[in-house]
Design a protein that fits this description.
The structure is a single chain. The chain is mainly beta. It has no helices and eleven strands. The strands form two sheets. Strands 2, 4, 5, 6, 9, 10 and 11 form a seven-stranded mixed β-sheet that branches. It has a four-stranded antiparallel β-sheet with strand order 1-3-8-7, with no helix packed on it. A hairpin with a 6-residue loop joins strand 4 and strand 5. The relative contact order is 0.33.
Length: 115
């Protein structure tokens, strides 16, 4: 069992920056993937970014060049640095952890970008 707790969401103006944090605890395997998904109001949950335990990253096209994912494996944490925020980035952001056993989700943190 893995528990995930997100923090860092809030209200920001367009063009601003925000950093999200996710702390993982419980039965963490050395080989895993952590990342972020988001769900705008009235829409489906979509992929944002992931990084595996070897440092390989993936990004959604909509956030490339603006968002950066990075990990602190010693602390079992993953971060999402969000720059040049746009109103369309407004969503509830969820931390995701996966390993050979399956997928685990956090409760989410709300990000709202005003125009």
């Amino acid at each position: 069992q893995v528990q995930l707790v997100e923090s860092g969401g809030g209200l920001v103006q367009a063009g601003g920056s925000l950093r999200l944090s996710c702390a993982a605890s419980g039965s963490i395997f050395s080989i895993n993937t952590m990342g972020w998904y988001r769900q705008p109001p009235g829409k489906q949950r979509d992929f944002v970014a992931t990084e595996d335990s070897g440092g390989f990253t993936n990004y959604a096209d909509s956030v490339k060049g603006r968002f950066t994912i990075f990990r602190d494996n010693a602390k079992n944490m993953v971060y999402l640095q969000m720059n040049s925020l746009k109103p369309e980035d407004t969503a509830k952001y969820y931390c995701r952890y996966s390993d050979w056993r399956g997928v685990y989700w956090g409760q989410g943190t709300q990000v709202t970008v005003s125009s």
